[in-house]
Amino acid sequence: MFKKILIANRGEIALRVIRTAREMGIKTVAVYSSADKDSLHVRFADEAVCIGPPESSKSYLNIPNIISAIELTGADAVHPGYGFLAENAKFAELCQQYKVKFIGPTPEQMRLMGDKITAKETMIKAGVPVVPGSDGLVENVVDGKKIAAKIGYPVIIKATAGGGGKGMRVVWNDEEFEKNFDNATMEALAAFGNGGCYIEKFVEEPRHIEIQVAGDQYGNVTHLSERDCSIQRRHQKLVEECPSPFLDDALRKKMGDAAKKAAAFISYEGMGTIEFLVDKHKNFYFMEMNTRIQVEHTVTEEVMDFDLIQEQILIAAGEKITKFEYFPPERGVHAIECRINAENVLRDFAPNPGKITDFHTPKGFGVRVDTLAYSGYTVQPYYDSMIAKLICRSHSREEAIAKMQRALEEFVVEGIQTTIPFHKELMKNEDFRKGNFDTGFLAKWDYVSEIKKNTK
User: Fold this and answer.
1) DSSP 334-363
2) Residues 241 and 184 in one domain
3) What is the domain range of residue 311?
4) Which entry of 111, 227, 252, 292 is annotated as an active-site residue?
5) pTM of the full structure
6) Cα Rg for the chain, rounded, in angstroms?
7) Which tens digit of pLDDT belongs to each residue from 137-161?
8) Residues 189, 162 contacting (CB under 8 angstroms)
9) Is residue 121 a part of any domain in this protein?
10) Which of 37, 80, 290, 320 could form a disulfide with 273 if both were Cys (CB 3.0 to 4.6 A apart)?
11) Mean pLDDT on 23-35
C-alpha cells in the first residue's frame, strides 16, 4: 500500500481523497495556488506545497511544479481528482517515469478514450452501439454538408478535444450548416488549441445516462450501475441521480453489459464512466468515456454504500476489484445530488465569486454534503464555480426528493448567490417529480419566473 499520496487537485475532491486516505492510514500532500492558501484541503492534509499563483495554467495545470512537489515530499502516488490533469496522458506518463503511481488508468488508455474520434472508433471495434456520424474529423464545410445529408438532419457538430459543451453546435438544416461549423471550430480552437470537429446524428429528446465501471490490473472489469445526468444546462450537469427513473431492468442490464464490454476491450484500470445518450425509444448510444472519478461518484456511493475512492486506491495499489454488480431496484435505495454552484441563476447562471459571510449545511439521516466552503471563505474567480454537493438518500425517489426539499431549505449560504433557489424550484416541478425530462428540459422550463415568484 502507498505511504503518501499527493492530491493534484483542490476543493471538495481533494478533501474527499484526504478523508479516505486518512482512514486507510495513508499520509497526504495537498498542493495549492496562492489563492487557495486558506482552503480546507490545505488545512487537513498532512503536508501542503504551494505550486504557483492563482491562474490554473500556472498552478494546478503546472506539471513541472507538481512533479517538484512530488519529489520534495517523497509521495509515492498521485491522485488527480477530476478536471485539471486527471485525464492528461503526458502527466500520467511523467509519473511513471518518476516511479510514482498515478491513481487512474494508464497513459495509453487515456489516449485511446480521451479523443472522442478515437474513442468512437474503439467502441465500434468493441461492438458497443455508437451514434451514426462521420468516420473521422470533418475537413471542411462541403464535406460536412455531404455527411449531414447522408445521416439526416438534425446533426450535432462536436469538437474532438471538447468538454463542458465547448465546440458543440446543433444544426437543423443545410442553410445553418456553414455558420455553425465555423463557430464550432473557432470555439474549439480557442478553448482546446485544437479546432478539429466531427459530426453525429443529433439524438432528439435524449437522456444522458452514464455507467460507473471499474477495472483492475488483472483484466477484471465490473459495472456499478447507472447515474441519470439529464438535468443540465449547456451540457453542464446540475443534478444527478441513481437509479434513473427512465430505465427498466432490461435496459439497465443491456447498458451495464455494454459498459463492461467497453471497459474490458481496452483492459481498463481504475474507476471510469461510460457515458451514453438514450433516446425516447430507449435506444442507447456510446457518447464518451471519462477516464477518472466523476464529480457525481457520490450518488453511486450513497446507493451502494461503497467507497469508490478507496476502491480506486486499492486498484492502483494492485488489489483485485471487489467483484460484484449492482442493480438499484434490488436494494430499494434512491439518491439524488444537487450541485451547489456560486452562480446567479437569475442572470443566466453567471459566476458569482466573493466572500461567504454565513454558511450552514443541512444535516439529518440520509443527508450528505461534500464542500470546500465555510463561513468566511472566499470563492475564487479562477476556478470552477461549484462550492458544494448536496446528496440525499432514501428508500424511494419520492422520499429522496422530499428529503432534498427539506435539506435545501436548511442550506444557508450568504454573501454570494448560489444555485440553491433553482434546485428548490426543480424539486417542486411536476415533470421532474414524475421523471418526465431529458437533456433539453431546462430550455423548455421558465425556471426564472418560478424563482422570482417564490423568492421572499
Assistant:
1) EEEEEEEESEEGGGTTEE--EE-SEEE---
2) no
3) 207-454
4) 292
5) 0.89
6) 21
7) 999 999 999 999 999 999 999 998 8
8) no
9) no
10) 290
11) 98
